[in-house]
């Protein structure tokens, strides 16, 4: 009896609800008289496919939706809800016999039978110190031989590799050292584990192999070093794991030794890595086919702001694209079927949220969608234009440009430059609801990939080393000028905003180019890098001291140039500042001190903080509240509306939610 059919009979209502959640988004064309309009609620209610795991028999996917696990047959049909317990669920992993699924939830490792029933908790250790996002047990992975589940734990204040028995009665610490150990992967025979270890002196990571005794659940001797990556001078690159060949003789990983991220083979017994891909593009996520003859991987070849799944001979040779799409997008997480005939993967684009697809491994047919998550109102979303411009030093900068569809020819419109974080992030051809919404509301939107961004090779990514608040700022300023020169933007109605390092860049811009922007939205960014490296989590502190060229004592001038607090007298632009009150990445003090300094200099600033939020805003009510406040701020300074019948006595009329979401911090002097 098929597994899905069995569960459907036990839980018919759950099956119907799950199907509605996953399949109601099947695109349907609007009539000629209708136009779709994206609302903030539409963006908030997006439920793209995130985690998926294929069963050992290749017949069923486990997927996460709305904090629960669902089962979806690969040949089509109704998805079935498997869990209903509280807490989000991540790290899905099937037992080798296909009877159980391991997952992480509420700080511990759990299993649930695939025929339904109450999940069983296997680990329940107190969270470790430091960053709460890394302080618990997570990323479970069944041994290929069963019985043991490998997982990453932060309970000791840093990442460690541990195992727990399938009944939860025995657990063992495999990596007792003080260094971070993560991204563990079992060998095919379940007797070895490859993992990535990181410390200050080898911050880009080194691959280590540990021999494991399946009888006792203990390591056999000390782990041996397989390969140590050269340390990235900017601290922003690291080894992200390795995958075993089916015969256990070699591993494939991604290294940047050529200046770009490419695929390398390393003998499991030791030896020099062999590079098997090359070119001015980035490769990622390699995975051997079941017979070991072919690799599937993700690559940006052809368009650096897009990603597609490619396949190639396992030991080098010509690569070919698996599936071509009319609209550039982002494909990710390839997974082979057990027979090697199909490859499953996730795909999204500017006009569709992430879905699960399957393609013939030989590329002989059009990929088939197994899910349809795109909301109906997104069907008229636009594909941004890839644009380039020259920065002040002549360096070419690329970005994505969204323009309002209803704009009249020759009209100069208000424009928003939205800056990604990282700075090693990259704006790509993805489902970007916020940019689509702003364009719909009449704003030109430019997302610049300034120097320091990933996706353009090691040299470009490290151009900002020892140059914070330097040429990276010019990259964005020349992007704003590009919009004006093209006749798209009104030079008096330019705004800038962003989160994390995007917030940092916003703060840099208003002191470096004080007369360029009419409004600025600074979200949980860094304004004092010395304060940041003192108070952030240890890995971020090390990374940023590398990017700054050393500690504040070693490089005082570099830190001084990056300290916005020393330059607030230059600010002319009204600012909206927002921060999560429990942020473990960027200290909330950065925003508090920034606002204090601005007010001491009589600058215009509005300041809101959100309780129980970490880095960014995760709670739906907080996200909606933040968007509404940002829109009101932009409307006031760039695109005012008239006849609003408001009785507010405040300079900016921020919307009030039914229940208080943000803590306002008005200037009470």
Automatic annotation (TrEMBL):
Transmembrane segments: none annotated. GO terms for biological process: proteolysis. Residues 184-350 form the Dipeptidylpeptidase IV N-terminal domain. It comes from the Bacteria. Residues 1-24 form the signal peptide. Residues 656-669 have a biased composition (Basic and acidic residues). This is Dipeptidyl aminopeptidase/acylaminoacyl peptidase. The lineage of its organism: Bacteria, Pseudomonadati, Acidobacteriota, Terriglobia, Terriglobales.
């Amino acid at each position: 009896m098929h597994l899905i059919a069995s569960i459907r009979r036990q839980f018919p209502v759950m099956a119907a609800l799950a199907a509605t959640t996953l399949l109601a988004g099947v695109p349907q064309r609007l009539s000629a008289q209708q136009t779709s309009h994206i609302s903030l609620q539409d963006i908030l209610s997006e439920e793209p496919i995130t985690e998926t795991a294929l069963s050992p028999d290749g017949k069923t996917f486990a997927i996460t939706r709305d904090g629960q696990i669902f089962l979806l047959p690969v040949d089509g049909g109704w998805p079935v809800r498997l869990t209903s317990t509280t807490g989000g669920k991540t790290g899905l992993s099937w037992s080798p016999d296909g009877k159980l699924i391991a997952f992480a939830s509420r700080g511990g490792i759990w299993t649930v039978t695939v025929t339904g029933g109450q999940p069983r908790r296997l680990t329940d250790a107190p969270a470790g110190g430091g960053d709460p996002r890394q302080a618990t047990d997570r990323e479970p992975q069944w041994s290929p031989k069963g019985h043991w589940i490998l997982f990453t734990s932060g309970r000791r204040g840093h990442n460690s590799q541990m195992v727990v028995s399938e009944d939860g009665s025995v657990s063992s610490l495999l990596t007792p050292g003080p260094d971070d150990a993560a991204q563990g992967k079992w060998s095919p025979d379940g007797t070895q584990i490859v993992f990535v270890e990181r410390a200050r002196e080898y911050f880009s990571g080194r691959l280590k192999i540990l021999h494991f005794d399946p009888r006792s659940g203990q390591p056999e001797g000390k782990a041996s070093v397989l390969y140590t990556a050269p340390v990235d001078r900017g601290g922003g690159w690291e080894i992200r794991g390795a995958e075993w060949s089916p015969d256990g003789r070699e591993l494939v990983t991604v290294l940047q030794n050529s200046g770009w991220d490419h695929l390398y083979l390393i003998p499991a017994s030791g030896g020099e890595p062999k590079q098997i891909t090359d070119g001015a593009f980035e490769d990622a996520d390699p995975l051997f086919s079941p017979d070991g003859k072919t690799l599937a991987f993700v690559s940006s070849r052809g368009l650096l702001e897009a990603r597609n799944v490619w396949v190639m001979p396992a030991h080098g040779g010509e690569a070919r694209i698996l599936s071509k799409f009319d609209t550039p997008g982002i494909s990710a997480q390839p997974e082979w079927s057990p027979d090697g005939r199909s490859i499953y993967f996730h795909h999204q684009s500017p006009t569709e949220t992430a879905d699960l697809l399957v393609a013939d491994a030989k590329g002989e047919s059009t990929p088939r969608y197994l899910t349809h998550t795109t909301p109906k109102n997104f069907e008229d979303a636009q594909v941004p234009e890839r644009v380039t411009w020259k920065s002040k030093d002549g360096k070419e900068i690329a970005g994505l440009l969204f323009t309002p569809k209803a704009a009249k020819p020759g009209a100069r419109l208000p424009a928003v430059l939205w800056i990604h974080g990282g700075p090693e992030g990259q704006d790509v051809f993805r489902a970007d609801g916020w940019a689509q919404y702003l364009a719909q509301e009449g704003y030109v939107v430019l997302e610049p990939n300034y120097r320091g961004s990933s996706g353009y090779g090691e040299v470009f990514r490290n151009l900002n080393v020892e140059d914070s608040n330097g040429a990276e700022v010019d990259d964005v300023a020349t992007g704003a000028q590009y919009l004006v020169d093209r006749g798209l933007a009104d030079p008096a109605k330019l705004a800038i905003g962003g989160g994390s390092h995007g917030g940092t860049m916003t703060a840099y811009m208003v002191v470096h180019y004080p007369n360029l922007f009419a409004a600025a939205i600074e979200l949980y960014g860094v304004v004092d890098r010395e304060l940041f490296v003192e108070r952030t989590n240890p890995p971020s502190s090390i990374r940023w001291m590398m990017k700054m060229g050393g500690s504040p004592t070693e490089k005082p001038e570099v830190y001084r140039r990056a300290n916005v607090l020393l330059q607030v007298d230059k600010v002319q632009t009204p600012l909206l500042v927002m921060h999560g009150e429990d942020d473990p990445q960027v200290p909330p003090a950065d925003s508090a001190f920034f606002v204090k300094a601005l007010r001491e200099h009589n600058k215009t600033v509005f300041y809101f903080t959100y309780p129980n939020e970490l880095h960014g805003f995760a709670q739906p009510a907080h996200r909606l509240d933040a968007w509404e406040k940002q829109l009101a701020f932009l409307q006031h300074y760039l695109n005012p509306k008239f006849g609003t019948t408001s009785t507010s006595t405040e300079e900016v009329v921020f919307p009030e939610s039914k229940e208080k979401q943000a803590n306002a911090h008005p200037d009470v002097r």
